[in-house]
Amino acid sequence: MNTSARPKKSFGQHFLHERRYIERIVAAISPRQDDFMVEIGPGEGALTFPLLRAAGKLTAIELDTDLIPRLREQANGVGELSIVHADVLKVDFTAMARQAGVERLRIAGNLPYYISSPILFHCIDHAASITDMHFMLQKEVVDRMAAAPGSKVYGRLSVMLQLACRVEPLFDVPPGAFRPPPKVDSSVVRLAPLPPEARHDADPARLYAIVKAAFAQRRKTLSNALRQLMDAQTIRAAGIDPKARAEVLAPMDFVALAKLRDTP
Question: 150, 181, 198: which is the final residue of a domain?
């Protein structure tokens, strides 16, 4: 009898099943007994149970109620599995770490591709409470995350993530490793939040507004793209050419812009 769960399109579910890729992901994470592991979207438990065996305990965040009883049953004798039934975007990772009495969490997951960017931004909001993150994502998204200035795929996601984390693409995973196969290639990426001394000190809301506006229309010069936020003189005061486009600026250039206000 087939006891596999039926993937739900509404949740963007593609269940990883190929053993060699599961083993490579677990090896990349390298969980230890003293880690507080959190998995986003455990699905059928392909990563859940290898991580649980290695770490001894794991907290899984799952929105699909149909999967939860199966996960609890299979966890018997494997380790201590706690399941949080919630939308991950509403989970306070900082509070989770505090309540668990740990400084930082380790997070992993095969993220639903249709909401991967919101999940990434949500996680970096809690970066101070996270040791590292290992995610399976659409390869195109990982390419954008790791893109350098000047690349065609360098943009808002690249800047915001690289200002918060060290982004390390690890390896690609083909569609056939999933059930059902997605229409795109996937990649595994490691995100390591930067230490306090390496983090920027700009106002987060202003920085986000500047980066969003700068990349809203990529062909516009900065002076045109940012006209609602600052004038050309202010851009020049940051050591940046107002006629330049956002795609050529390094992440820290946006920090320099965010720390300036319009000159009188």
Answer: 198
